[in-house]
Design goal:
By secondary structure, the chain is of the alpha+beta class. The chain contains 7 helices and 3 strands. Strands 1-2-3 form a 3-stranded mixed β-sheet. Helix 3 packs across helix 5. The longest helix is centred in the C-terminal third of the chain and has 18 residues, at about 130-150.
Length: about 170
């Protein structure tokens, strides 16, 4: 999220380089599901952290600028050689940006009648100023990457938040 789209090469015209997307589909490898800071922290600690993220974003979606209900999205980097997912930060996102980012989960919710998938796709296109074809290409690439990454076991590196987690879990109640 937040400008992590395709990478541009060192030379060539704008037209030859992939468009940098503000909002991207981030399909978490199957073997990483549930391995995140949110699921490891006590509820109160997660609530404190996410409210800090919302305050830092002035209570607006950091991707599209929407106001209203926000979600705290964990930003991960993937080292495909070392097969490590590393937590690198957090982003405040609105419900639609969250649905795009977690598009796999969004398709499940849509199949259950809890989400309009066409609205999610339209949001992706509007935020990125792209046509349906660019969405389809991006989705296909994200799906292919997810399938490849899901074939392997991954290590989870919580980065600098590992210390936060350890402090919260070892703190004695007062």
């Amino acid at each position: 999220v937040g400008g992590r789209g395709g990478k541009s090469g060192p030379s060539g015209s704008e037209a030859e380089q992939p468009k940098r997307l503000r909002l991207v589909i981030e399909l978490v490898p199957r073997t990483c599901w549930g391995k995140n800071l949110r699921s490891k922290l006590p509820r109160r600690a997660w609530d404190d952290l996410r409210h800090q993220v919302y305050t830092g974003a002035n209570h607006r979606c950091e991707v599209c600028g929407a106001e209203g209900r926000l979600n705290c999205h964990e930003k991960w980097e993937y080292d495909d050689k070392g097969r490590t997912q590393k937590l690198v930060g957090f982003v405040a996102v609105c419900n639609l940006c969250s649905a795009v980012t977690h598009f796999g989960h969004a398709t499940i919710r849509a199949a259950q009648g809890g989400l309009d998938l066409e609205e999610v796709i339209t949001h992706f296109m509007r935020v990125n100023k792209v046509a349906r074809q660019e969405f389809e290409e991006h989705f296909s690439a994200a799906w292919a990457m997810w399938k490849e990454r899901s074939r392997h076991r991954w290590k989870t590196d919580l980065g600098r938040w590992e210390k936060v987690l350890n402090a919260k879990l070892t703190r004695k109640p007062s």
